[in-house]
Amino acid sequence: DDDRLPKVDLARLRLRLKSLDRAQDEIDLVCPISRGVLRDPVMTAAGSTFDRPSIERWLQHHSTDPLTMEGGVFIKDLVPNEDVRSKLIALIDEYPGILAKPRWHCHSWCVKCRGQAGERFWFERRPSGDGQCSNVAVFSENASAYDLTASLWEEKARLAERREQLEANPTVRDEDIAQHNAEVRFFGHHTAKCRAIGMYFTLGNPWSRWPLIFPCGFAHRYLRRCLQTRFFCGTSGVASFQVVRSKTLVEEAASKSSCLAEGSD
Length: 265
Fold this sequence. Notes:
- By secondary structure, the protein is an alpha+beta fold.
- It contains eight helices and eight strands.
- Strands 7-6-5-4-8 form a five-stranded antiparallel sheet. It has a three-stranded antiparallel sheet with strand order 2-1-3.
- The longest helix has 21 residues, at about 150-170.
């Protein structure tokens, strides 16, 4: 799920809760399965709270609540625990030092496309281990959120696998090879350029035409090419591009809602 909360360091959280005389709150904020701080808290029908990926993996092989062992528990019946989520958001916003990685240098982007539809996209850029912002979740009005970075790697792997299949097939048709080569060219010329979305732009708005100089100029051009793919604005182009510098999760959520709402200009 790409609407997860940012990762909280458990040791830092414990110290903060202890300083607030709230050590007992830890049990509500930690997943009983993964033993990590909840990022997407959901409840079972039995009332137990878990991190969504952990409980979904459990329920792929069981139909019981891991804590109570009550039966009749299924993935489709999981519901978000908004109380726990709100409690974590409040802690993160008030004490950002509990985060595993600094977050707010990775500004999010609100993009509106040209054309009659004027589709809108929210790019939530999250820090990665290399200091960049390459964990990118994409939200839109008309589709489910997805992990852009992961989808690019999956597409690259799919194309490589397809190439191996074609080369191993002695009766492969010329049109199949031509179609594959066209997909590879499109990926290289357009889709792969979307990796620039995960860069840390030190000079402000990455959509500005100045300065298109080394070291960031190529990334600016890649960004334009990415947003011109059929996955985003296509040939209609970009009507507006806004860098959103939120300082809290509450601000971020409000900005995302405003970005994706019709008539929010």
